[in-house]
From TrEMBL:
<feature type="transmembrane region" description="Helical">
    <location>
        <begin position="165"/>
        <end position="185"/>
    </location>
</feature>
<feature type="transmembrane region" description="Helical">
    <location>
        <begin position="136"/>
        <end position="153"/>
    </location>
</feature>
<feature type="transmembrane region" description="Helical">
    <location>
        <begin position="246"/>
        <end position="270"/>
    </location>
</feature>
<feature type="transmembrane region" description="Helical">
    <location>
        <begin position="213"/>
        <end position="234"/>
    </location>
</feature>
<feature type="transmembrane region" description="Helical">
    <location>
        <begin position="29"/>
        <end position="50"/>
    </location>
</feature>
<dbReference type="GO" id="GO:0016491">
    <property type="term" value="F:oxidoreductase activity"/>
</dbReference>
<keyword id="KW-1133">Transmembrane helix</keyword>
<protein>
    <submittedName>
        <fullName>NADH-quinone oxidoreductase subunit M</fullName>
        <ecNumber>1.6.5.-</ecNumber>
    </submittedName>
</protein>
<feature type="transmembrane region" description="Helical">
    <location>
        <begin position="6"/>
        <end position="24"/>
    </location>
</feature>
<feature type="transmembrane region" description="Helical">
    <location>
        <begin position="304"/>
        <end position="324"/>
    </location>
</feature>
<dbReference type="Pfam" id="PF00361">
    <property type="entry name" value="Proton_antipo_M"/>
</dbReference>
<feature type="transmembrane region" description="Helical">
    <location>
        <begin position="276"/>
        <end position="297"/>
    </location>
</feature>
<feature type="transmembrane region" description="Helical">
    <location>
        <begin position="367"/>
        <end position="392"/>
    </location>
</feature>
<feature type="domain" description="NADH:quinone oxidoreductase/Mrp antiporter transmembrane">
    <location>
        <begin position="130"/>
        <end position="418"/>
    </location>
</feature>
<comment type="similarity">
    <text>Belongs to the complex I subunit 4 family.</text>
</comment>
<dbReference type="InterPro" id="IPR003918">
    <property type="entry name" value="NADH_UbQ_OxRdtase"/>
</dbReference>
<keyword id="KW-0472">Membrane</keyword>
Length: 495
């Protein structure tokens, strides 16, 4: 079996093993082993990718093509570039960390881990697909388990949150499907057969009017899962009700499908539509960046704070993509990776705090640094990374975004950039506010004077997420070089 198909096959084998498992111990052991194998595959893929690039200059490497539905020219077509490889590594790390954080899951553990691995299977398949129809199928596989994961294992108004998330994402999927079919039925503009293959469509001169029509549909279809303002409202409620590991995958991995789809499909295949509509979506993205940051300040629930922070940070990804230059695009991909690790780490820590205190309300917490020092110190580090402190991944990503965005001579772009840059200050306010209220000062509740320390499996999950945040911040060039090399075809196609 080829190196990429394993990213679908191994999770499927893990799911089958989980189905026949008995009890919590077997279920979590199988989930852990399967996730470790996926991480090993992702690391191996990085080395294999660099080795392959020495002799192969194609847009995508490790490509494989099998006919699926011949009548409609639908293929199981897969391949990766540096961007896909980086996102596959992100997914494998967050999934493994999520398994460790869910180590003590007692309610239907087998079914929980099955749903979690199904979600990850869809994400893996999405990132390796270069056939639009196959990509859409994997997209739906990734989204559908969210309803069960929140509706069954969630807390609070979980049924409402699960239904809201599902309806909004399914609505976006319907819009996306129209956009994909629009691209498909215009893919023979140069006289060839209709095709769903991204690389083949990129060689076709799709009529400008068709691009202007289908670009906003495709962009919105993908960007809704990336928390595009004003279609972001499903995200905070979904985060707040989801169990810890699901929040980690939801924010750390699932929401990355939005920016990746926008970049890989909408912008690459519809360049004229991108140029025509970019100003409109830049405004929405800039509003999302500022709105998410200010909304986070007003929250007292830890999960809502992190959820609105995600709206702001992912708005920055879309904003950078729409700047249409190499530096900003590099920043957008780095921001996707950085945010994935940071937000998964935040939700892991929030879950640990909630498990010990039974509250996520920061006004009821205080002095936790004295009681659970390890968890508290890591929370401070994650906060510093989130606000863009040098030495962490957030700084590298945001510097690329703002430098790239400010390269435009047009006043509109520069004003939008200045507005978005101001979100950094707001981010510092809500991060330091939470640290001051929740971690510093006296302990407000005597019941919190003796809280359980972090366990080995919690520390393992935390370190899996913390190491990449520091690594990218200290030594980003290898990753940046891998991403920049993969941006050349997009630069030529869009500009």
């Amino acid at each position: 079996m080829d190196i990429l198909s394993l990213f679908v096959a191994v999770p499927v084998i893990t799911i089958l093993a989980l189905v026949f498992s008995k009890g919590l111990k077997q279920a979590r052991l199988i989930a852990m082993v399967g996730s470790f194998v996926q991480l090993g595959m992702a690391i191996n893929l990085v080395f294999a990718y660099f080795k392959e690039r020495v002799v192969n200059n194609d847009i995508m490497v490790f490509t494989k093509d099998l006919v699926w539905f011949k009548q409609f020219n639908i293929h199981y077509s897969i391949g990766v570039d540096g961007i896909s490889v980086a996102l596959l590594v992100l997914t494998s790390i967050v999934v493994l960390a999520g398994v460790f954080i869910s180590w003590k899951m007692k309610d239907l553990p087998k079914e929980f881990f099955v749903s979690l691995i199904v979600l990850s299977t869809g994400v893996y398949g999405f990132f390796i697909s270069i056939d639009l129809f196959t990509m859409f199928v994997f997209y739906e596989i990734a989204v559908i388990p969210m309803y069960l994961l929140i509706g069954i294992w969630g807390s609070g108004p979980k049924e409402y949150s699960a239904m809201k998330l599902t309806l909004m994402l399914m609505g976006a999927s319907a819009v996306l499907l129209i956009g994909i079919l629009g691209i498909y039925f215009n893919s023979n503009a140069d006289g060839g057969p209709l095709t769903f293959n991204i690389l083949e469509i990129a060689q076709v001169n799709i009529p400008v009017e068709a691009q202007k029509l289908f670009f906003p549909l495709t962009f919105i279809g993908f960007a809704v899962i990336g928390a595009l303002f004003p279609f972001h409202t499903w995200s905070p409620d979904g985060h707040a009700s989801a169990p810890t590991a699901v929040s980690m995958l939801h924010a750390g991995v699932l929401m990355k499908l939005g920016g990746y789809g926008v970049f890989r499909v909408a912008m690459f295949l519809l360049p004229e539509g991108t140029l025509h509509w970019s100003w409109f979506f830049i405004i929405l993205s800039a509003i999302g960046v500022i709105y998410g940051a200010f909304a986070a300040i007003k929250q007292t629930d830890l999960k809502y704070i992190n959820a609105y922070s995600s709206v702001s940070h992912l708005g920055m990804v879309l904003f950078a993509l729409l700047m249409l230059n190499k530096t900003a695009w590099n920043g957008a991909i780095l921001q996707s990776l950085s945010h994935g690790f940071m937000t998964a780490l935040f939700f892991a820590l929030i879950g640990m705090i909630y498990q010990r205190t039974n509250t996520r309300d920061i006004t009821k917490l205080g002095g936790l640094l004295k009681v659970i020092p390890f968890i508290s110190v890591i929370y401070v580090i994650a906060g510093l990374a989130s606000l863009g402190l040098p030495g962490f991944s957030g700084f590298v990503a945001e510097m690329n975004i703002f430098v790239g965005a400010f390269q435009h001579d047009d006043m509109f772009y520069r004003v939008a950039t200045i507005i978005s840059v101001s979100a950094i200050v707001v981010t510092a306010v809500y991060v330091l506010r939470v640290v001051g209220i929740m971690l510093m000062g006296p302990v407000k509740n005597n019941d919190f004077l003796e809280l359980p320390k972090a366990t080995w499996f919690e520390k393992t999950g935390i370190l899996l997420l913390l190491i990449p945040i520091v690594w990218i911040g200290v030594a980003p060039l290898w990753l940046s070089d891998m991403i920049l090399a993969s941006l050349e075809p997009f630069i030529k196609g869009v500009l």
